[in-house]
Amino acid sequence: AVNLTKADVILQADAAYLSVLRTRSLLAVAQETIATRKLIADQVSALFQNKLKSSLDLSFANVNLADARLLFSTAQNDVRGAEAQLARVLGLPTDTRFNLVDPQVSDQLPASSDSLVQQALQKRPDLLQRRLQVQSAQQFARAERQLSRPTLGLLGTAGYVPAGETQIPGTFGAVGMNLNIPIFNGGLYRARRFEAEEKAAAASEGLRDLELQIARDVRLAWLDATSANERLGLTQQLLDQAKLALDLAQRRYKLGLSSIVELSQSQWQYTSAEIARIRAQYDFDAQETILRYQIGLVP
Asked: How far is CA 76 from the centre of its chain?
């Protein structure tokens, strides 16, 4: 029970830890987005003053900048909330500030979940606890069955008389036996044996159900981690393509070959790709932590 509680606490702390790292990364993206869009807005404003761009271009640029500032405000609030949650999990004041480092998480997962299931069946603390409970129930049932057997008791006494009548021996001893055959006890032992055997059988079935549940949870956690790993690669490809599209859109706009709408769309797609990439990274980290928990490797 202690190990299970410890594993739950560590899992919650890891989740809060990764949440802080994720929100801080999203805050950095928001800051970068503000800097980039402010530069473009300043350039468009200068071109507008020189009659080289229309008021529509300036409006779009300002809207994009305002959207980036809104993203920054939301990310900043999320960071504060995540830090408060981490402080609560660690038992620290809610205004505590943390200097965190990204964990070195491996992106290599086994090709099959079978080996992970076997590890879980050997290491999960709740399963080990349940097995001890089953053994205890079975041992108690065996003890109840043995109560219906006859019992033989031995009683002995010995003594020494230092002084007394000569007719009385100076030493004495006696041994007696008591045979108890439980026949007429109102079926008490039979009822107790039946109750103990049923409890042992129920404990065994509960153990079997827990083993099946753990195997299912491990397989689901492995599937979630595998899917998160795939999304990690896909979001990286999306980010690379969005970066290329943004560079091309900026060049086309500077040359007057495209409108501000195309540039705004490219900016939005790139920012969305950055956010998706960060979320995919920390989602994978969280899923791997959950997988380790399901296997029984936490702590």
From this structure: 25
Please write the tens of the pLDDT for every residue from 202-247: 999 999 999 999 999 999 999 999 999 999 899 999 999 999 999 9
Written as one letter, the residue type at 225 is A
Q: Which residues are 153's β-sheet partners?
A: 178
Q: How far is CA 273 from CA 16, 35, 68, 232, in A?
A: 24, 17, 14, 11
- Residue whose C-alpha is closest to residue 281's, from 231, 227, 218, 222: 231
Collapse the DSSP code of 108 into the 3-class scheme (helix H, G, I; strand E, B; otherwise coil) and give the result. coil
The DSSP secondary-structure symbol of 95 reads T
Question: Which residues have CB under 8 Å from 3's CB, separation 6+?
Answer: 125, 299
Q: Is the dihedral of CA 254, 260, 265, 269 positive or negative?
A: positive
296: phi > 0 → left, psi -120 to 50 → alpha, else beta; which? left
User: How far is CA 181 from each of CA 18, 126, 143, 152, 196, rounded to the nearest angstrom?
Assistant: 67, 42, 16, 9, 21
pTM: 0.77
